[in-house]
Protein: Peptidase S54 rhomboid domain-containing protein
Amino acid sequence: MNPDPETDAAKRVLPPRPKAAALVALSFTLLLYLVELVDVILPGDLDQGGIHSRMLSGLDGVLFAPLLHAGWSHLFANTVPVLVFSFLAMAAGIGRFALVTAIIWVVSGLGVWLIGPADTVTVGASGLAFGWLAYLLVRGIFNRAAGQILVAVVLLGVWSGMLAGLLPGNPGVSWQGHVFGALAGVLAAWLTSRTGKSRKAVPPAAGNLEG
Structure:
């Protein structure tokens, strides 16, 4: 039986082009630092471009909120998870990573916009981080990949403390963004696994060959 390249790619643990993946992860993280530096230098407050819950004028914050942070300490807290999780999430290629990220970006942002606290502005890349982590934790189950499940166990052991961010009660922490980010990561893992299965070639039945 010939190996299925699509299946092999879906079950991969590390990016096929690690240098390119590392460059993408590092470039995105540097972009976050550049945005924060601009926010510090300019007289205005870029954070006001974040998500204003249930306000139509604040809906565009879904697009900008992951790029904004409420100070350097907020950005520092997100840096390592963003670097590690984004790198590992490129195991199936940068194109698949872009799709997964888009799903997490939009779903987590809309979730905050729908149920976030009133009269607040939500910013930060933690929704993306939770989404990538959830994606990495469950993709092995959908792909039936032992290696990915093993990586998930390691990630859960190292970053289990992040799970506390899914619970309400921490002032100044958007548990809504974390929860919807995690749900979006599970959704992205399921959708991409279904996409991979639908692309598998199905041999034609005998007598039904076209020619």
